[in-house]
Write a structure and sequence with these properties.
Largest sheet: none
Number of helices: 6
Number of domains: 1
Shape: elongated
Distance between the termini: 24 Å
Radius of gyration: 17 Å
Length: about 140
């Protein structure tokens, strides 16, 4: 079980690192007027999104695997249900990032850099919520 937990945490940290950085690239993409810089940032965004998507999948797979060790407990633990809800929101956020990345690649994203600065804060809130639920287990 400790190996499964270790891999769950490694992939989660890797996924979050990418999901924190990708919207920062979007901020710069939305701000740049230089075609060369835009193309370079767009390539970075495409590669990063492709790179972190397996981390998302592996985080969920190893997390689900962890629940099999004590399913009777997890199915009744309120904090766990809250965590799963937040993870679902983060997965949706991940795919929304993919949507924005495709819009930038197609040259049709009209969101401002200010929008992406705010958009970038969402995974921080999710991470704080998940950490509180997992560590404190308030319910």
């Amino acid at each position: 079980m400790l190996w499964v937990k270790t891999f769950h945490l490694v992939f989660m940290v890797s996924w979050f690192a990418g999901i924190f950085y990708l919207p920062r690239i979007f901020v710069n993409l939305a701000m740049t007027e230089n075609d060369g810089a835009f193309n370079q940032l767009n390539t970075m965004a495409q590669k990063l999104y492709r790179f972190i998507t397996p981390f998302m999948v592996l985080t969920v797979v190893f997390g689900a695997w962890l629940t099999t060790y004590n399913w009777p407990y997890f199915k009744t633990a309120g904090w766990f249900h809250g965590k799963v809800f937040l993870v679902v929101l983060l997965v949706i956020y991940h795919f929304i990032c993919g949507h924005f990345q495709k819009q930038f690649a197609d040259g049709r994203c009209e969101k401002s850099h200010v929008f992406f600065r705010w958009f970038n804060e969402f995974p921080v809130l999710i991470l704080v919520g998940i950490m509180i639920l997992v560590v404190v287990k308030p319910f």
